[in-house]
Amino acid sequence: MKSANHTSLRRALLRWYRANARDLPWRRTNDPYQIWLSEVMLQQTRVETVVPYYERWLRVFPAVQDLAAASQSRVLKMWEGLGYYTRARNLHRAAQAVVEQRDGAFPQTAEDWQELSGVGRYTAGAIASIANGEAVPTVDGNIKRVLARLFEVESPLGTPETEARLWALADEILARSAPGDFNQALMELGATVCTSRPRCVDCPVQKYCRGCASGSPERLPRRGRDTVVKQVREAAAIIVRRSRVLLVQRPSSVLLANLWTVPAVDVSEVADGFEALREHLSWSFGLEVEFGASIGTIRHRFTHRDLRVDVYAVTAVRGRLRCNGSVNVAWVKRDELGEYACANVDRKILALVQWP
Ligand code: SF4
User: Fold this and answer.
1) CB within 8 A of 307, min separation 6: which ones?
2) Full set of structural domains in the chain with CATH
3) What is the pLDDT of residue 274?
4) Of all protein residues, whose CA lies closest to atom 8 belonging to ligand 1?
5) Among the listed ranges 34-48, 78-92, 321-335, which one has the minimum average pLDDT value?
6) Ligand 1, closest atom to CA 202?
7) How far is C-alpha 282 from the geometric centre of its chain's CA atoms?
8) 296 alpha carbon – ligand 1 mean position (Å)
9) What is the distance in A from the centroid of ligand 1 to the CA of 9?
């Protein structure tokens, strides 16, 4: 595409964005903290899901200092239900770095933003262009789709060559006088018009689009090799004693780190899951148990794993609760459950508790 065409494309896209952009709360501010928060929440999560979380978060942690001063359990509780909890832990850690190491001052460039936990090239480019007005590109999933179609990029996503090409194209067409609006315009186009089923007739840049000219833009972008989804099976124990259910906090080194769940063990490779759970309860918690009925099976899909959890009602008949390892445990009443940060899969399991 010639540079004169780039100029017309930029104009058309900016004009369209300014007339059609959805009114989203983070688009009404230039505050770096709020823009940063929105970009982190929007990673792998839909706009409609993010809006109420974003608004509630800012009521509880209106400034980066409030977030930095909060406990991690409070932060995880506020994030509960959004998934990908590493984002919350990184955001918290980065807020503490801003307050403690930078005296509350936010980075000014994309390069500096990348020094904070959890801020990669994409997030840094988005924040720096929107909040700081820096002329840097950004490339998220929506933008990849738009660029691959506009420039008919045939190589599959995920390879270093394709990624480098998409970043170079984003930089080449960037409107340097309005980088924040331009990057958001590309994202908005990908989210609302150039979707998996592109509406080319409504597209402001149709006349520049090679993918559309080829007649089948939806074949792009080409996907890399499919991700292997691992099948995982767990056995979980619901132990209720004196109207309290036993919860354990996951260690910080595992998936869903520091969130609360019921005792469970991976039985994917085990012939007798029931027996493995009995051993786990004895070894890890010092409890000799009697099993009641299986009370349900929960299925949950993570990005790279399909989880099936067989849930059992268990009675502790002997033993004094202890922890073999560094996990925390708690006996929790029904009306206290809301105070514990749990992943969606754990809430599904806890919905099976048969309270006396
Ligand atoms: S013309 Fe169609 S394929 Fe090309 S950018 Fe617009 S919506 Fe996407």
Assistant:
1) 232, 233, 234, 298, 299, 300, 301, 345
2) 3-219 (1.10.340.30), 231-350 (3.90.79.10)
3) 82
4) 194
5) 321-335
6) 7
7) 35
8) 46
9) 12
pLDDT tens digit sequence for 99-134: 999 999 999 999 999 999 999 999 999 999 999 999
pLDDT for 326 equals: 59
**pLDDT tens-place string over residues 130-151:** 999 999 999 999 999 999 999 9
Give the per-residue SS3 of 244-284.
Answer: EEEEEECCCCCCCCCCEECCEEECCCCCCHHHHHHHHHHHH
What pLDDT digit, counting tens, does each position of 46-78 carry?
999 999 999 999 999 999 999 999 999 999 999
Q: Rounded to whole angstroms, how far apart are CA atoms 79 and 60? A: 12
End-to-end alpha-carbon separation of the chain, Å?
Answer: 70
Q: Is the Cβ–Cβ distance between 214 and 221 less than 8 Å?
A: no
Ligand 1 near 193 CB (within 6 A): yes
* Distance, C-alpha 301 to centroid of its chain: 14
Report how far residue 260's alpha carbon sits from residue 105's, in angstroms, rounded to the nearest whole number: 34
d(CA 351, CA 172): 52
Q: In this structure, what token pair is assigned to residue 111?
A: 């390069």
DSSP 84: -
Q: Would you say the CB of residue 277 lies under 6 angstroms from ligand 1?
A: no
**Does any ligand 1 atom lie closer than 6 A to the CB of residue 131?**
no
Q: Does the C-beta of 200 come closer than 6 Å to ligand 1?
A: yes
Mode of pairing for the β-strands spanning 305-318 and 230-241: parallel
Structure confidence at residue 132 (pLDDT): 96
Q: What is the average pLDDT value for the chain, to the nearest integer? A: 93
Q: For residue 241, list its beta bridge partners.
A: 244
